[in-house]
Amino acid sequence: QVQLVESGGGLVQPGGSLKLSCAASGSIRVMYAMGWYRQVPGKQRELVANSPFSGITVYADSVKGRFTISRDYVKKTVYLQMNSLKPEDTAVYYCNADLISNGRRSDYWGQGTQVTVSS
Phi and psi (nearest 5°) for 87? Predict the structure, then answer.
């Protein structure tokens, strides 16, 4: 079993900062990438940032220059530093991992953490 456990969401004022964390655990043989997505009610889940273990990090245009994704290889943890937050960043943020577990490559998702940007 693979688990992704997120933390760090909450309420913040416009212009403020938050840092999300996501730790992967379980029977992980190979990890290809970790990233963050977000979703608001009535809309599709969208990519925020993705960090391959071998490749180029990708950011959504809407967060470039404000959000930074980083990883700790040893801890199998991915972080999302969010600065200069805007009300339109309000969403449920989901951690994603592309990995091999029990001989099978799959996408795994965290349970989601709410980020609310409001004054």
Answer: -55, -35
